[in-house]
Write a structure and sequence with these properties.
- The chain is built from two helices and eight strands, in the order ββαββββββα.
- With about 180 residues, it is an alpha+beta fold.
- Among the domains are: about 25 residues, no CATH class; about 90 residues, no CATH class.
- The protein has a three-stranded antiparallel β-sheet with strand order 3-4-5, with no helix packed on it.
- A hairpin with a 2-residue loop joins strand 6 and strand 7.
- The relative contact order is 0.05.
Length: about 180
């Protein structure tokens, strides 16, 4: 059926829910109960898990797009101190990257094995690498001079520490031929 249904002033007196008949009053009550379970498009809070089915789509998106200058998007992860955030800035300012703000760092794992950790709860707030770093023929720059025996050293630091070989002047040296006495 398509279009309007002209009931000619008549009312629906019985509605079937499944195999059982229900009154209009019961139907309105069921509808009101369902309204209480919905999540509003703005300003509502949901409790429980939010699971989205991929259905027949190849990608399911969660987030915000179409941001304009001065607007941003934040995805809190437990509290406002742990979140992913992004804001659009006006030219000529450079666009800032997506920011990950955490209270205790960020840990990357693959197959439950540690890969790297950005920040920690210690006083140095270190970046900790747990795997080999492949530099792909790129440089490591701005390395400070070593302070501890296990610290990496720059070429300049090593060159400056080479012992100087001071030779006393042996006089003329002939290369290639019998030595003269």
């Amino acid at each position: 059926m398509s279009g309007d249904l002209d009931m000619g002033g008549q009312l629906v007196s019985t509605i079937y829910v499944g195999d059982e008949a229900t009154s209009w009053t019961q139907t309105v009550g069921l509808t009101q109960d369902a309204v209480g379970l919905r999540v509003l498009k703005a300003g509502d809070t949901m409790s429980g898990d939010l699971r989205m089915s991929i259905g027949s789509d190849t990608v399911r998106s969660l987030g915000c797009d179409g941001l304009t200058v001065g607007r941003g998007f934040s995805l809190p992860l437990g509290n406002l101190q742990n979140q992913l955030q992004f804001a659009v800035v006006a030219p000529p300012q450079n666009q800032t990257p997506v920011t990950m703000q955490t209270t205790d760092g960020f840990l990357v794992q693959i197959n439950n094995e540690l890969v790297c950790q950005l920040g920690d709860t210690g006083p140095d707030n270190q970046v900790i690498i747990h795997r080999i770093i492949a530099m792909n023929n790129n440089w490591i720059k701005f390395l400070r001079d070593p302070a501890e025996p296990q610290d990496a050293a720059t070429k300049n630091y090593e060159d400056s520490r080479k012992p100087e070989h001071l030779l006393s002047d042996p006089g003329p040296v002939r290369i290639g031929g019998p030595a003269r006495g």
